[in-house]
Amino acid sequence: MRVSALSSSLPTLPPSPSPSETRKPQILFNNFTTTHGISADWAKKSLIGALSGALSFGILFSSPCSIAFQSPTVQSPPPPPPSTSSSLSTTHDASPELCREDERLVKAETGPEVVTNEGIVEEAWEIVNDSFLDTGRHRWSPQTWKRKKEDILTTSIPTRSKAHDIIKRMLASLGDPYTRFLSPEEFTKMARYDMSGIGLNLREVLEDDGGVKLKVLGLLLDGPAHSAGVRQGDEVLAVNEVDVRGKSAFEVSSLLQGPNETFVTIKVKHGNCGPIQSIAVQRQLVARSPVFYRLEQSENGNASVGYMRLKEFNALARKDLATAMKRLQDMGASYFVLDLRDNLGGLVQAGIEIAKLFLKEGETVIYTVGKDLQYQNTTVADAAPLVTAPVIVLVNNKTASASEIVASSLHDNCRAVLVGERTFGKGLIQSVFELHDGSGVVVTVGKYVTPNHRDINGNGIEPDYRNFPAWSDVRQHLSQCSKLQQG
């Protein structure tokens, strides 16, 4: 069984950037942050990342599988020949036991599995039973859900189509608009996105000693990485001579991004027992910055204001916003405006990392709440803030999901005032589970709660001001907020 973690897609709300802005960014809704194991017990899955906004998701694997990117031409391409332009080391550091274990994993991945129609329905039922979070409709209870299983499985299910219809009705009875069934065709569409810019999909693999390896889960046939010699199952050791040990798949995917036709050097180890090889890969996708910034003068002309508009949360958002903040600060900005209007979200992890740029070490970014313990987390800032100047965050009714995480985090920690309209109110976490026949179910498993313990979903965030305030009022507001927090 496969499981994907995501924040639910928003309604189709077209962004409306200002005509004065420069080029529209390429939409990068595609973070495949994955883990992989040999256990068939999906309940032991571990949440690596969650995403938000339309079509944004990260995939987690808890049972053997072999796909990541799926195009009409390939699934799990065979290993290509080594690139002639790459340097090769024949160093081996894996024991024979590890090599044999790797062979067993490959055999397990390729082995056939037969599942009954009743088994598919029961599998979907168990996922909901163990992970579903009722976010306010109060239609779900363990007792009624158990009776539904008993009613459904008292008779045989003659066809796979009938089994899928039963799952659809079963999920619809929950009354949750985001919990739904995915046909095999719909599920495979979720594996067509490439956040790295070079046509590969990374997964995080937990080791016995608690460490994490980054491995290539899938490759795009004839994509840049595949053509250069990267193989499925390779462990990624370094990017441009930067050691990636301890980094997340999200962070490394960001390192792989860059301007079109430039080169990135990846050091990989082929399998558990193969050689270590440094491979130069030419980027073939244009990763456009979602950040626009400029230096302005305040109305009275006594202060410089750094204006930053963030259009979406893609893999470049955190890095480019940090660059903008530093440059504006060097240019003399004593105040900052972060414009999140019409920003529907994107990668939740990018939103979390951006919020950390403004917070003191130890301050809470966001809480997640869910029935499953893995969704009950507190995320805190782990470093000093990049800037300490007062901030205004501009919001409207299309500020959603990851944008709301940033806005609420800065607001509740007395780092910014919110100006504009009440935000959209999207704070749910969904997971996408693959069933054993290649279909899937999307299930609401958690929600986001602000540092001040306010539920974002369905409520949104009320701004402090409707109209742009004087900076003296901003300073006073933030000072009073800090005093109240300190008691």
UniProtKB/TrEMBL annotation:
Please state the gene responsible for encoding this protein. LOC108990247
Protein name in UniProt: C-terminal processing peptidase
Give the enzyme's EC designation.
3.4.21.102
At the top level of its lineage, which domain of life is listed? Eukaryota
What Pfam families does its record include? PDZ_6, Peptidase_S41
Its BP terms in the Gene Ontology are: proteolysis
Keyword set includes Transport: no
CDD domains with a match to the protein in the record: cpPDZ_CPP-like, Peptidase_S41_CPP
Stretch list, region Disordered = 1-24, 71-97
Q: Which InterPro entries match?
A: ClpP/crotonase-like_dom_sf, PDZ, PDZ_6, PDZ_sf, Peptidase_S41A, Tail-specific_protease
**Gene3D superfamilies from the xrefs?**
2-enoyl-CoA Hydratase, Chain A, domain 1, 2.30.42.10, 3.30.750.44
What is the top EC class of this enzyme, as a single word?
hydrolase
The chemistry this enzyme catalyses reads: The enzyme shows specific recognition of a C-terminal tripeptide, Xaa-Yaa-Zaa, in which Xaa is preferably Ala or Leu, Yaa is preferably Ala or Tyr, and Zaa is preferably Ala, but then cleaves at a variable distance from the C-terminus. A typical cleavage is -Ala-Ala-|-Arg-Ala-Ala-Lys-Glu-Asn-Tyr-Ala-Leu-Ala-Ala
Q: Which segments constitute the PDZ domain?
A: 187-257
Q: Which UniProt keywords are present, listed alphabetically?
A: Hydrolase, Protease, Serine protease
